[in-house]
Design goal:
Radius of gyration: 23 Å
Strand order of the largest sheet: 3-4-2-1-7-8-9-10
Largest sheet: 8 strands, mixed
Strand content: 15-25%
Distance between the termini: 37 Å
Helix content: 25-40%
Number of domains: 2
CATH topology of the largest domain: Rossmann fold
Number of strands: 16
Shape: globular
CATH superfamily of the largest domain: Glycogen Phosphorylase B
Structural class: alpha/beta
Number of helices: 15
CATH class of the largest domain: Alpha Beta
CATH architecture of the largest domain: 3-Layer(aba) Sandwich
Length: 417
């Protein structure tokens, strides 16, 4: 029987968790424009907004190097810019010198004394931080955004040697990942790929996440058929397949393609559009501001992603948050976002005719049926909220158990009522 003899003291509120000091190691970071850089920038800004002290370690974007405060996504953070060199086979990539990675890591870790190190790449910066953090007993979290298969495209290594070197790269990656308390990658399919390539087990699938509120869906009747691609203009994106597909579309659709992004294949693809006779229907916008990018998403009718090497594809999630149907290659992690017949279609990788057929099927839809696909994109991408991603990483940083969101979803589907 409860005691009612007098007032009961109010139980104390749970103690607030103290903010963390976090060192985040990145081989690519803003102003670089790619999925890994964008994820690190958004995660860091979200952590700062929650009161954590975040230090970014990344190659300098120019010859100027040192430590200073930078603002990203509206949040100020400390950035340690390492002396870097330009990799000229690539259109913008700069890298920190590998033989200085441990010395840089020692200096920064001894100065900052972080609670946790989170490296976003094992290649240079992450390798040094992992080695030195382990020696100091600092908790390490690792995230993989890298496929050595993609890196080889920007080397001058002969093709016959690349397969051997890819295997060597994955073994090297394993050495850095083995130092981490937890390893993550953006999707379950990417996690399975990483486990197979390295022999790791227990890789977490944690979405890069986006803030869907930053994007504006438009359900007003469309004034034209606009196809949009956003991403690096490089070989692994297979934009040539998209150009060939546009060539195959019926003329009466009056479909126009916008390509947002820069890269080493830009001039080649511009020449290809001329050769195909579709230059008047293809617009290469290059790099654009965040606001211009959001407007491009809002104006488009359908988003096309022909890439075969996406570990998640932030651009595809941004398109979905803008209410766009998606036609994507049935490869790597894209089927995780594009549910065939629900919010768009998957096509056979490299098959321009199949891509054209799937684009035509979307562009030919009456407005009410198109809106069904648009709403499905909004519903599917809602599971990839950036705040959930930040909370999951906070738990990993503190050593708390986390449930893999992808596994939870699969369990709900598989379990009987």
């Amino acid at each position: 029987m409860p005691d009612s003899s007098g007032p009961h003291p109010t139980p104390p509120a749970p103690a607030a968790k103290k903010p963390l000091t976090i060192v985040m190691g990145c081989d690519t970071f803003a102003p670089d424009v790619n999925g890994a850089a964008r994820f690190a920038e958004r995660l860091a800004a979200g952590l700062v907004e929650r009161g954590h002290d975040v230090h970014i370690v990344a190659p300098a974007a120019s010859r100027k190097h040192g430590t200073w405060t930078e603002e990203h996504e509206g949040q100020k953070m400390t950035v340690h810019r390492l002396r870097s060199w330009r990799w000229y086979p690539h259109d913008w990539l700069r890298f920190a010198l590998p033989w200085t990675s441990k010395a840089n890591a020692r200096r920064i870790l001894d100065e900052v004394k972080p609670d946790v190190v989170h490296f976003q790449s094992h290649i240079v910066v992450g390798r040094g931080l992992a080695f030195e953090a382990q020696k100091r007993g600092i908790r390490i979290i690792a995230t993989n955004h890298v496929m050595p298969e993609n890196i080889m495209e920007f080397t001058v290594i002969p093709k016959f040697l690349q397969k051997v070197l890819i295997a060597v790269e994955w073994r090297d990656a394993r050495r850095s990942f083995d130092r981490a308390e937890a390893v993550t990658t953006p999707t379950r399919r990417a996690a399975d790929f990483l486990e197979k390539a390295t022999g790791l087990r227990g890789v977490h699938a944690i979405s890069c996440g986006i803030d869907a509120g930053n994007y504006t869906p438009d359900f007003s009747p469309r004034s034209g058929n606009r196809i949009l691609f956003v991403g690096r203009v490089t070989g692994e994106k297979h934009i040539d397949v998209l150009l060939n597909a546009v060539k195959l579309l019926p003329a009466d659709l009056d479909a126009r393609l916008q390509i947002v992004g820069g890269g080493d294949q830009l001039k080649n693809l511009q020449a290809m559009a001329e050769t195909l006779g579709i230059a008047d229907r293809v617009e290469f916008l290059g790099y654009v501001s965040d606001e211009e990018l959001r407007q491009a998403y809002t104006r488009a009718t359908v988003f096309a992603m022909p890439s075969i090497a996406e570990l998640q594809s932030i651009a595809t999630m941004e398109a979905m948050a803008s209410g766009l149907p998606v036609v994507a290659a049935n490869a790597m992690a894209l089927p995780h976002l594009v549910h065939d017949g629900e919010n768009g279609h998957l096509f056979r990788p490299g098959d321009a005719q199949d891509l054209a057929d799937k684009l035509e099927s979307v562009l030919s839809l009456p407005q009410d049926e198109l809106d069904v696909l648009k709403r499905a994109s909004l519903r599917i991408v809602a599971a990839h909220d950036i705040q959930s991603t930040i909370s999951t990483f906070e738990s990993l940083y503190r050593g708390e158990p986390v449930a893999d969101p992808e596994t939870e979803a699969a369990s709900r589907v598989a379990s009987p009522e």
